[in-house]
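Hi U.,

Before I forget, here's the chain from the pilot set. I'm dumping it here mostly so it's searchable later in email.
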Amino acid sequence: MTHSMTAYAQAVVDTDLGELSCELRSVNHRYLEVAPRMPEELRVYEGDLREAISAKLSRGRVDCFIRLKESQSASLEPNPEAAANLQALLDAVRVDVPSMQAIQAIDVLRWPGILQAKKIDPALMKQHLMSVVNQAVEGLLESRATEGGKMAELIQQRLDGIRQVVTDVAAFVPEIAVNYRARLDEKMADIRDQLDPSRLEQEMVMFLQKTDVAEELDRLVVHIDEVSAVLNKPEPAGRRLDFLMQELNREANTLGSKSQDPRLTKASVDLKVFIEQMREQVQNIE
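Structure:
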């Protein structure tokens, strides 16, 4: 199935520290290039992130944005050592000042050092990160497949147009030789008696050799069938399609160089238009 290299996807998971999100944006590129942007405390997992993306994608530049939106309550936890020291201090003061009022819990929490940043469990954080990345990659693949399917339809429409041009050319090519022979006879009518008949036949043979496009038409049909087949294959097809576009364009140029009829010239131009339209789509196929 044809996949586009342009796509977007996002995934979010809730963690003990807050909301962890992964945003993926991909555009066309000759090779696979992963560009992660993530908080420094998660940078240790960059290698795992790259590996997860590379396992599912083969081409395109992929910008990966990892964000951790920490909730204030979830990102802090009590510091047992500081709390114990504070309790010991309060007990000592209470001995000297028995009438001292009890301290409210909110006042305790405001004491410097009582609250500390919650420690991250490395294994759990890696699990959350890989989960959100994999979800985003699956969404990206789905988006790529959807757009790729539409691109394949557009390419198939152009292939149908090229096939019709080839059919039309094959139908009128025999007329070109007949018309040339008629023009040649008309020009030579006054001096025919002075010419060697075999010389006229040689001229016709040379003309037919120069203008014979049967081989080009056959190769065009072969390339059309190959493009259709490649579009339906499950593996990445971008590079193969790009090569086939070059081959189609080469045959269209050869067809134009052999033209001895306005209809053949127009057919060559029409072919190039269809091929260029397909090439624009192919540049974005994985």
